[in-house]
Every structure is written in structure tokens, then in C-alpha cells.
């Protein structure tokens, strides 16, 4: 866990001014840079000490065998694991005859700053070697948003108080030693040295290495080029071997003298392109980078971010910590998504190797909704990736005896990589989640090209899946049996409320998309009978309800199960899945993460206000939040049913998931969905934002800790600004055509004039709620700026 | 599959007179010899050709890692696998300068006979080598029922028509090459050479080898000693190395001359005893065997079997094939159980390495009921083994967060070895099954020592488990949620009817055992409150019932699930679990094996006759019999509800499971439960035998194919003979005190006089039944003797 305050609280940056090796791995995740194609963990320039070295290329993976004590039909035989590719950020430094290593000598000053507007990670160190030679090191690193294949580092060393010999070794290193590889020795063997050298060449200051993975057969090229500015007599030479390419710069600095270097490095990978083609691709990218130069890259980066923040910023007054966290979150979302270009958006982005680098349903349900209203082109990219995997998803459905498409629970390339089907393949809701993201994006953007091409295809194939997966019972009700909903503490159950409601929407959205694009639909062999079947199934969808309790059971029979014995479950036994068997979790009323509550957010139309209040109270008492995906949804519904202070606590948990390492696994990468959750809790929670069917609604209501909440978002070509205080909300149209909005249920037109509406008083809710003992969300202590 | 007729149909033997290498592995299983301690597959004396070499010692196993693609709390980390120990049955023969190998040369005559009264496997061969030298080989092999550690082979070679040089090499061989080891390379590595040599000594004609397993640390000693009778000039010498001990006999036979040899071999194993102690134990056993001599062993064997058959024989007139099969089955049951002595009774006995040599619930539910009424002392042994594993079962319950004992789904030593919990740990009914076997044995034998010692302890700890596993719902009903019943095509469901009814009996039997042994129960900390809790839970037990259909759903919600699409499921897609994912099987109405139907057999008191008829018809249409455990139970209930001809077909399937290799896996060993099933189908099915609470009831009714059915069984110290024709049943008391019996519901006393009662007419049942298309039991073609 990152002890507070690990980072300074400030509005536009994440700043560390003390090096704590105990949380080095966590800081590598939060200081990671990425553009959605290249990801660099925030490893120190000199490589060591490190928590976990990491350089990732989106979509680049190695295969490893998935073993089973007892196999079964349809179990995936191999998994895909993100590979730590050639490290291009490594710059070693020798001071006199001692390596610059912060574990030795004296670190007088240390600072790392992730600048959310500049899009750079800067680092300064004032260090004396064990023999007393002092240097100042300053580096600035960026992964370019505007040049997809390029990263760059500006690196300076200054001799402080005596003449100093320096040697800088700037490297490309493949097959770095990894810290951990999990328990399976065969997997570890595969990943210990995943890259087979194909080429390592030097020439004209350019170093290029090409490698290939053993099993997946993917090829990766990395290249580097340097600008060096040192005193006369500075020597430069280059060496290379299969797995290391090195440029060595030796110089002697007078006191106050400085060696400056800019390192440009570039990556390309491909399944199909040849070694020479990849080599040339990387060389070309480096040539373009040299043309733009360091200043050009830096300026482009800022301009790109200015544009992003103009349409996406969220202002939070009264809680500086949350202010910082929500911008930090938006920045990482943008980093994970900006240059996706038909690649997946993994749960950890490209910030760590957690979850094997896989993408899950949380991308569609938590990350893409934020991007839909702030950076929609990334959503089109992410969903185009899903569409590109349709042949694999159709094949998987066929293997499972179904029709349509069965998207994988977890994957990099598109094949199912889940090795435990009750919490993997059985979680068919992922298909409705993807369909939801498609429909939401089309609603928000009216992107007709996408709608007819990507959207229709995904909606049709997922609707086909639901019709094959469910059946009409003797009474005519449409049932979906034996599936797993979002709550992973119940599995393989009948008629999960979330799944059925999302499938219902999926079926209807598919029928509507077909109606919008009859010719394109005909090309997919969609018939009138088929869409009638979808509409009938949606109409007859089973949504179980417990009349006795007046609540929706998470799935059929759920409310008859035994309650979890929270009284005898000590705090050290969370997360429960690490301390109790699945069988025990599955058969009791204990909830890992919002499930019915998530359904109430995404399908609010299917519940009455009274049902929402009762369901929320019922599930609050059962939900342990052993998943990072829960707090933001609980915030949204807590706010909707009037528990504003509780919502505020949940906001804090979502927002600080990684900055405070609440789940204790930020070491493996940041939690994109939780980072998105800060925005969701603020905008959908306290802003009351709901959109769909061409309507954009707000219902702002602030907790005591937030005095003003303002956010910008895009909807159907308009850029809006919403600014709420406790008393009133001001709406402004910043760009685009006039738009009709809803404020606390009242519709109004927004054009050139700012519109202000009072926020109605919110009486305290009648129903008290409580959480399982010890699982209450932690209270927010509003953090004063500079405090 | 063994093509018919592979074996001659005769009443007291299994005879093969043609060598078919395609089914060699299957014949090795059916010709296996065992006494429950030592098991020898029916490999040819000369070792090759072979299907799978096999020599097993009950309880002797190696550990191997159980891998998981995604692990979980409480998953077993290592499995136990039966080991092919030192092979003592190997006798190689060199004829002239050519090895006696039936794949070469000409086999003029071949016969193998398993004699069910002699307890021997005899083999004769008349063979000419490729160069034309002819020999006759005769061998007789036995594993002694009366000398637990001893096996012996009488081996003769006769020169037929010319002077012939012979060399016989009689061996002990450790770490034989195995044919197959499954898919996991790590497991294969462990089991490729499981035995580490500790000692190999020769002296005074005695050869002894001691080995130890690498991981489980078990020690095994094997020894051999020979009597050799050959012409003058016969040479004998012995050699040994770590893994091979060899006695070589070289002789020259005149035409018609014979070399005779008797090989005695012996085994001992231990977890604790030292190398010298085990060495001496084996040497002592061999000394005892030499004292008794071959003829003595052979005569003891027959006397032992005469005694067994006197109390256990079943006569079937009209169907010679079933007559042979039921005796074959009883013989293998006896072989698996005779000398258990607190060791498990595995699903395949000691006839093959199938299921890793594990014991499952089928021992208690199918095998022990037969032995309870035919050879009860083995039942006491088998259940004493379960009792000896109580500390492990209690620890497992604790690990799972439960109280009492959670016996393993599959094991050799007592630890859970199931690598797939939904069809392993979740099948908690195994605990009630063990309790059922305990109660049935106590009812049948009134063995008070067992009752107070083994029985009470097992009943108390299993009752505790059920109370921890279930809970009273808001309406006060006792529910058992999230468990798996016998039908493995539905898993992790609520209120499985079989499980709940068996748990109900378990709770009641435990309370009654406590009432019988208050002092012993107090020593187990049983209180009045605790037994009251058991009785209350039993009283309030949930037994779901579908009022609309008038049937018991296998578990809650089962009858609302979609039906399996049998129309599109071709015959090549059975067993379904190899061609469809679990998720699809679990959520549909498709039944692997009798579940509600088994409950109707074992808890017939809980169903009305009309319910039995409706339930049977309902589940017949859903049951695919992908398990060898189903046919006999379907036979029993088909007979009870009046479908006698259908019952007769199921009898045929159970009886011929291994003789006709119906499941195509007899290669891995014979199916003890199916072999028991032939007896169950005959005695409980057509004999209508039900026992419990001191009452023994019969209701004989024969199908057209059986003209007379007679069986003997033991109950409360009495040995009964029951002989039924279509018209009437004759009851005789062969030994023991007079007894009150029930014939078709009418009670009568049986003393010295034979009692004959007419069998009431059985009208054809009203309800027609059908099976899934293509899954109908195959018609019986009554087999004429000699036909």
C-alpha cells in the first residue's frame, strides 16, 4: 500500500519528492507513460533498482500452455501473455568509476513529476556517489500521442562541484530478467526469455534490433537514435549483440558542466510483416522523429493534451485530492486509448503485466463510457477491435454449440484465454456489455459509418448469441440459465438480473440497428423472422423478483441462500476468494461487486425508484467490494437514491484505487476501470448524468465535501459545460448545435445562452443502509491544497 | 470394444480361445487377479505383447502436482496416482534362439481361462517359432485369498516334436515402461520412473528388491523364489541389478519333455517400516508360501471360494450370458475386497490404472451393498478405512469452512485429489453415501463392535457436516445449496433431491447411533442440543417438487431448464462431456446417470408409487447413461414400476459393461460398480430386495428372458436362499436363526421349512417410457449355452 501522502496533492500533476523503494513498483505503474500503442512503465532511467521492468506493445503477446488438473471440452489450451519487449528507455550512468544507483551513495534530492498537461514524466536527482562525487540528473520522458511509434527521453547530467568523468550507456535490451512469473513452471519457462533474436544492426548512429516470439510467432523491431551535446572530447561509440544494443558516451565535465542527450526510440510489431519491412518501418519512424525534433515532439504533446482537456476536464472544488485523482484517471484513460487503432484496451492499459495484459468486460462498461463522452474516437477504435475479432468469437460460439458470437472473457488477440470457465466463459454478459458500448457510442456520436459497419455487425452477432443461449419456458418466459453475472461470488446461476436486462437491451438494439440498415443487415442474413424472435425474447425476458423481500434477487434463488457469516470473517480474510473456496462463496448471499446495483445504473429504466432504494439497501449489506469495479457503481446508485455522503465515500475509493493502492496490486499496473470510476462517480453520480435515445439528462446533487463540480462532455456534436454548486447548476454550450437537456427531470433547450437551474432539495432517504462489518467505505478527509 | 463372442459363455468360467491383440488390454483387465491387497493385470507371462503392464498394491501411490490454469482457494495441490510396482509375474521364454512372442511365428492353439471357483487364471499355448520349433506352454496363476502377500505361477513348457533348447528368465522388474501417462508432461515425468532403488539382493534362491517412491516416500519390497523341475543338466543362475532381478533356467528338452517351474512371489509396502523390516517381511511371506506349497495354495484358494459361493451365488436360468456375467462380477468384487484390511476399494479394484486408482462414492453405493449381503467382513474393512481417514476428512471440512468430516471425492490415501471442484468437492453426497453404507452394514450384520467404533464416529462427523453445509431459510425449511448430486451433467445446484434425502437419512441415522451409544457419543462431544439439531434439520429437509409436472426436479429449478436437443446430437457425440462444454450440459435438462432415480431406490420410502412411476418416466427421457453407474439403478426402478422388459435390458448393460466393453474403457480396468450392478439389477431389481430397519423384503417378478432367478444372501446372522420363477418364490433358511421376511408386502416367518409364495400378477404399467433417441438400452438376445 502506498502510504499517504506519497504524492503531493496538486491539480495538474502527480509529484513525488521522496524515493521510497518499498513502493517503487507501484510508482512505476502510476508514472507509466503510454499512447495506447507503446507503454513504458515508470522505471528509473538507469534500470535499477526496479520493481518490475516493463515495456509493452499493445497486442504483442506470447502463448503459454494452460494446464488443467482435469480437462474439459472447450477449455482453452493456451493463454496469451503480454510480453516485456525490448527496453528502449534504459540509460545507465557511470559517475567516475561508480554506477549511478540510488541504493548506494547519498540522494540529496529526488523528484518525479507526471505532468498531466504536458504529457511528460520528468525526473530530477541530486546524488553523491559513495566516494563523494555529486551529479544532478534531469530527465524528461514522453511517449508521443501524435507520433504513434515514438518515445523519447531528454537526459542531462551536470557535474556539481568537481571535475567528473561520466559514461552514459543508452541501450536497447531484449529478454530482461523479470521479477515474477507466477506459479506455473512451464509458463515461467516460456516467458523467461520470450524473444528470439533475428537481427541486431548498428550504423550511422541508428541501432535496430528485431526479435520474434517463440510460440506466437510475432515479430518486434526496436530502434534508437541519439542527439548528444557534450563538451569537446566527448566520445561516442556503439556496440551490439543479439539482445543488447548500446551507445556509449564518455565525457569529462568541469564543475557546473552538463552532458545533454536526447534519445529517440521507436517500435513496430507485426504478425505478418517481414524482418526487413519491420526494420525499415522503425527506421522511418525514427527519421520522422528526428525531423520533428525534441521540442517539436514536446510541443505536439502539449497541444494534443490541451485539445483533450478542453473537451474532457472535470473540476472538483472542495476536495483537492479527488480533483487530482479524476484528472490523473482521465490522463491514464487517454494514455490507454489514444492510439489504439484496432487493438484491445487492456484492464491495466499498458502500465503493467497484471491479468496477463488481457482485456475484459470492464473496458466496455467502465472505460468506454467515459471516453464516449470525452474522447469518442478511441471508442470507435476499441470497438473496431472487437469487430475485428468477430470471426474468432463466432468460432468460439460454434465450439460452445451456440450461434452468433461469443466474445472471450479475457484475451489479447481474441481467443478465449480464461482457464476457469465458471468465472470466464460462463460470464456471457460480456457480449451484452460490448453491445451496450456500441449502442452508447452510436447514441452519443451518431457515427453512421460506425453504426452500419462495426455496430450493426456486433449487435447482430451478439443478439444471435442470446437467442441461442436462452429459451422460452413452458409459460413462454425467456430464460437464460447457467450463466455468471458481474458478481463473481455467485456463478453459473439462472436468470441473473444484470445479464437478462443487458441481453434484453442487446436484443432490442440489434433489432433497431437492423431497422436502420436493412440492406447491410440482409447481407448478414438477418431475416424478419430473426428480428421478430429477438423482439419476442426481449419482451418475454425473465427478470426474477422476490415478492417477500421486495427486492430483485441477483439471480434465481439467490435470496433463499444462506447469508455469509460476516461476524466470523476477520479483516485479514479479504478478499474472500483468497481465503474461502468458491463453492462456499457461490452458495451464499455474499457479493463481490455491484451486480443488481450495476443493472440499476445501466438499466435504470427497468426499476422503480422504490425498488432502487430497496435493492440498494439490500445489496449494500452483502457487498464486500473485493473488486475494484464496484465502488464507482455503488457511488452512482447511492447518489441516485439519496445517500450522498455514502456516495462521496465510494467516490473516494474509486478515485484513490491506485494513488493509494487500495487493492494492493497497483504494482501490476493501474486499474483503468477504477480510474474511469472516479469520472463515473462524479459525473453520473453527483452530476446525475444519464444518456440514451438521444436524451442527455442531469440531476446534480453534491455531497458536503464538494462545493462545486464542473465537467465538460460531448454529445451528438455538441460540447457542453455543466457546473454545479450545492444550490444550482449552470449549463453552457461550448461548441456545436443547440441541444435539449434534462435537469432533474425538467427539459430545457441550451443554445448560446448559459442556463442556470436551481438544484431541488434532496431529503435524506428513509431507508438506512449498512455494509458488511468492516467493509464500510473509508471516510473522506477532504484534503486541502498544499496540505 | 470387445467383439462378441470374445469369451465363451459358460457358467463358472471366463474362457478365451483366440488371441486378439486389438483387445489385449481389455482382456488384461477382465483376466486380472487380485485379493484386494495385490493386483496383477492379466498380462501374458512373457510380458510382451501387452496392452498395459500392471502390478498394483492397494494404497501404494505416488504424488504428482495438480496444475491449474487459474488456481483457487482449497484446490488440491497434488494428486495421488496408483503406481505400477515391481512386476513379479514376468517369465520370459527363449525357444532355441528365438523369443517366445506370439506376434511372431505361428500360434496353433491359445486359451486363457479365469476359473471362478478355482480362483486361477490358466493359459495354454501351442506355438511354433518362425524357424518351426514347437512348444506347448501351460501356466496357472493365482493371487492367494488366504495368504495376503503371496502370488504364484505354475509354468510348464513342453517340447513338441524335436529336441529343443529352452531358456526361461523369471524376473522382478521395477519401473517398467508404461504405455500411456495422460497429457500433463509433469505428471508423466513423475510417473515414468516412480521407484528409486534401495536394495536388490540375491541369495539361497531368494531374490528381493526394495524401492521407494520419490515424492510420496512409500517403500515397497518384492521377492521371488522358485521350484524348478527339469531334466538332468538343467542350469539355474540368478542375476540382479537395481531394477531387475532375474533367475535364468536353461535346459534341453527331448521331444515330449517338459520343464516345470513354480514361481512364488510376494509383496509388502509401508510408509513407516524400514528397508530391513520390509525385506524380512517379504522373505517371511515367501517362506510361508514354500511351506504351504503350490498345491496347498491352490487348494486353499478353492476352499476359500467354495465358502464364498455357498453364501453368495446367484443362479439365472434362461440367460446364460447374464448367468456368467453375474458370477464374473461377484468374483471381481470379492477379488477387490477380500483382503482390504483398512485400505480403499478403488473404482477399478486393482485391475488397471483407470481413475488414477482412486476410490469414489460408487464403492459405498454400489459395491458395498452387494458385499454387505454376501461377504460382509470386507464391508467392515472398507468402512474402517474410511474411518481411518477421518482426521484428513475433518481437516478438509475445516479448510472448507465447515464442521465435521468432508470425505474426498476421489483419493487413495484420504486427501482430496479432485482437480475440478464442481464435479468433485461440491459432490458432498459422498458423505451421506458413506453414512448409508455404514447404516446398511450395521442393519444387516448387527455388528456392535463396528457400530460403536467405526459406525458411530462416521455418522456423527458426517451429520455435523450436513448441519454446517445446510441452513434453515426464512420459512424454516432446511436447504442444502450449491452442491452437485450423482448426475454430473448438473452441478452446483440447490437442493438436489438425492443429496437432501440421503443427508436426511444421515442425520437421522447419526441421531439413532448416538442414542444407542450415549457414552461413546459423549466422548465425541455430542450433546443433546446437537442431536436435536440433526433431527430438526432432517425433519425440515427441503425436497423440491414440481407441482405442474408432478415430478421431483433433480434440483431446484431443474425442470425449468431447456431440454437437451437430442435430435441434433448424433451417436458419435456421446459421451456428451467429451463433445460439449460443461456450461451447456449444466444448464439443460440432460442427465448423465440416475440421480432422482437412485434416490427412489435408496430412499424409496420418500416417494409414493405414483411419484415413482412419473419420475421414472420423466427421467428416462432425459438420461443418456454416459456413466457406467446408471444402468443397474434404472433396472431396479424400471422393475419396481413394472417395466420388466426394460429392466431386463438395463440388467444386460450393467452385466456386460466389461465383458462387452460397453464404455470402451475396460482397458483401464474393470468397473467394480457396474459389476456390482449386475447383482443389484437381479436381486434388488427382479428380486425386489429391500432391507432396512431389521426388515428384509422381496417382491420377485421376472422378465420373459429369465425363467428362474435364485440367490443367496446373509442378513442378521441368517443365510437365506431365494428362488423365484415367474409363478412363485421359494424361500429357504440355510443357516442361522429363523427370520421374518416380506414377500410382495406380506410378512411371513422363515424357519426350518421352505416357504413358497405365489408371485402376484404384474399388469403392464400405464405409463409408457422412452429414452433419448439412440440411447435406448440394447435389446437382450438371450444367449444359449454353447451358442
TrEMBL record, chains A, B:
Family the UniProt entry places it in: Belongs to the glycosyl hydrolase 65 family.
Region entry Disordered, spans: 742-787
Protein name as annotated: Glycosyl hydrolase family 65 protein
Pfam family, one: Glyco_hydro_65C
Positions of the Glycoside hydrolase family 65 C-terminal domain: 689-750
Coiled coil stretches, renumbered: none
Record keywords, A-Z: Glycosidase, Hydrolase
Transport keyword on record: no
Keyword Nucleotide-binding among record annotations: no
Composition skew (Basic and acidic residues), residue ranges: 743-756, 773-787
GO terms, molecular function: hydrolase activity
Source taxonomy: Bacteria, Bacillati, Actinomycetota, Actinomycetes, Streptosporangiales
Domain Glycoside hydrolase family 65 N-terminal: 16-271
Residues of the Glycoside hydrolase family 65 central catalytic domain: 327-679
Amino acid at each position: 500500500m502506498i502510504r499517504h501522502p506519497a504524492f503531493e496533492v496538486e491539480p495538474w500533476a502527480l509529484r513525488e519528492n521522496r524515493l521510497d523503494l518499498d513502493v517503487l513498483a507501484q510508482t512505476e505503474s502510476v508514472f507509466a507513460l503510454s499512447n495506447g500503442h507503446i507503454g513504458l512503465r515508470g522505471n528509473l532511467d538507469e534500470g535499477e533498482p526496479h520493481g518490475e521492468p516493463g515495456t509493452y506493445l499493445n497486442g504483442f503477446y506470447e502463448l503459454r500452455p494452460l494446464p488443467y488438473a482435469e480437462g474439459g471440452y472447450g477449455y482453452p489450451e493456451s493463454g496469451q501473455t503480454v510480453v516485456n519487449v525490448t527496453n528502449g528507455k534504459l540509460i545507465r550512468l557511470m559517475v567516475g568509476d561508480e554506477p549511478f544507483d540510488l541504493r548506494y551513495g547519498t540522494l540529496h534530492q529526488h523528484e518525479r513529476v507526471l505532468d498531466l498537461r504536458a504529457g511528460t514524466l520528468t525526473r530530477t536527482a541530486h546524488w553523491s556517489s559513495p566516494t563523494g562525487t555529486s551529479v544532478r540528473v534531469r530527465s524528461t520522458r514522453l511517449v508521443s500521442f501524435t507520433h504513434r511509434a515514438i518515445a523519447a527521453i531528454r537526459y542531462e547530467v551536470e557535474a556539481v562541484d568537481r571535475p567528473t568523468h561520466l559514461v552514459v550507456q543508452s541501450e536497447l535490451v531484449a529478454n530482461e530478467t523479470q521479477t515474477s512469473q507466477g506459479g506455473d513452471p512451464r509458463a515461467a519457462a516460456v516467458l523467461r526469455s520470450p524473444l528470439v533474436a533475428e537481427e541486431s544492426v548498428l550504423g550511422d548512429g541508428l541501432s535496430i534490433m528485431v526479435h520474434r516470439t517463440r510460440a506466437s510467432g510475432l515479430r518486434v523491431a526496436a530502434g534508437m537514435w541519439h542527439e548528444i551535446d557534450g563538451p569537446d572530447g566527448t566520445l561516442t561509440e556503439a556496440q551490439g549483440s543479439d539482445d543488447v544494443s548500446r551507445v556509449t558516451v564518455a565525457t569529462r565535465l568541469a564543475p557546473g558542466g552538463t552532458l545533454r542527450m536526447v534519445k529517440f526510440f521507436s517500435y513496430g510489431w507485426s504478425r505478418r510483416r517481414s524482418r526487413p519491412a519491420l526494420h525499415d518501418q522503425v527506421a522511418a519512424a525514427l527519421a520522422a522523429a528526428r525531423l520533428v525534433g525534441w521540442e517539436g515532439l514536446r510541443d505536439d504533446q502539449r497541444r494534443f493534451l490541451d485539445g483533450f482537456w478542453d473537451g474532457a476536464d472535470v473540476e472538483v472544488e472542495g476536495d483537492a485530492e479527488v480533483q487530482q485523482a479524476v484528472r490523473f484517471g482521465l490522463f491514464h484513460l487517454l494514455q490507454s486509448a489514444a492510439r489504439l487503432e484496432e487493438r484491445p484496451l487492456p484492464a491495466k492499459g499498458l502500465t503493467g503485466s497484471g491479468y496477463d495484459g488481457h482485456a475484459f468486460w470492464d473496458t466496455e462498461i467502465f472505460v468506454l463510457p467515459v471516453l464516449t463522452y470525452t474522447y469518442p474516437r478511441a471508442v470507435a477504435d476499441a470497438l473496431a477491435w472487437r469487430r475485428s475479432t468477430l470471426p474468432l468469437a463466432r468460432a468460439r460460439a460454434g465450439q460452445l454449440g451456440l450461434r452468433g458470437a461469443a466474445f472471450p472473457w479475457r484475451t489479447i488477440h481474441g481467443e478465449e484465454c480464461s482457464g476457469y470457465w465458471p468465472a470466464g466463459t460462463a460470464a456471457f454478459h460480456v457480449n451484452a456489455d460490448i453491445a451496450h458500448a456500441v449502442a452508447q457510442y452510436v447514441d452519443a456520436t451518431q457515427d453512421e459509418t460506425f453504426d452500419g459497419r462495426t455496430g450493426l455487425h456486433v449487435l447482430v452477432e451478439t443478439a444471435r448469441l442470446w437467442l441461442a443461449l436462452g429459451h422460452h419456458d413452458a409459460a413462454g418466459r425467456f430464460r437464460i440459465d447457467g450463466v455468471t453475472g458481474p458478481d463473481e461470488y455467485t456463478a453459473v446461476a439462472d436468470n441473473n438480473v444484470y445479464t437478462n436486462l443487458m441481453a434484453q437491451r442487446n436484443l432490442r438494439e440489434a433489432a433497431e440497428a437492423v431497422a436502420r440498415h436493412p440492406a447491410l443487415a440482409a447481407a448478414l442474413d438477418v431475416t424478419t423472422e430473426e428480428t421478430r424472435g429477438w423482439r419476442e425474447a426481449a419482451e418475454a425476458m425473465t427478470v426474477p423478483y422476490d415478492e417477500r423481500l421486495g427486492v430483485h434477487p441477483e439471480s434465481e434463488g439467490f435470496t433463499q441462500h444462506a447469508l455469509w457469516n460476516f461476524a466470523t470473517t476477520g479483516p485479514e480474510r479479504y478478499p474472500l476468494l483468497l481465503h474461502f473456496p468458491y463453492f462456499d462463496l457461490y452458495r451464499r448471499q455474499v457479493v463481490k461487486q455491484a451486480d443488481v446495483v450495476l443493472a440499476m445504473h445501466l438499466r435504470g429504466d427497468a426499476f422503480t425508484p422504490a425498488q432502487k432504494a430497496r435493492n440498494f439497501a439490500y445489496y449494500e449489506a452483502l457487498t464486500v467490494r473485493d473488486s475494484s469495479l464496484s465502488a464507482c457503481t455503488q457511488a452512482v446508485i447511492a447518489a441516485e437514491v439519496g445517500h450522498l455522503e455514502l456516495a462521496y465515500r465510494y467516490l473516494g475509493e474509486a478515485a484513490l484505487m491506485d494513488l493509494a493502492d487500495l487493492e494492493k496490486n497497483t504494482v501490476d499496473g493501474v486499474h483503468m476501470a477504477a480510474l474511469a470510476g472516479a469520472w463515473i462517480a462524479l459525473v453520473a453520480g453527483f452530476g446525475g448524468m444519464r444518456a440514451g435515445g438521444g436524451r442527455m439528462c442531469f440531476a446534480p446533487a453534491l455531497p458536503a465535501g464538494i462545493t462545486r463540480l464542473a465537467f465538460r462532455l460531448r454529445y451528438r456534436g455538441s460540447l457542453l459545460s455543466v457546473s454545479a454548486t450545492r444550490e444550482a447548476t449552470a449549463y453552457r454550450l461550448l461548441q456545436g448545435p443547440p441541444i435539449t437537456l434534462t435537469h432533474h427531470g425538467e427539459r430545457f433547450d441550451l443554445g448560446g445562452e448559459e442556463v442556470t437551474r436551481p438544484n431541488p432539495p434532496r431529503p435524506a432517504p428513509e431507508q438506512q443502509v449498512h455494509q458488511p462489518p468492516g467493509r464500510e467505505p473509508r471516510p473522506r478527509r477532504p484534503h486541502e491544497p498544499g496540505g
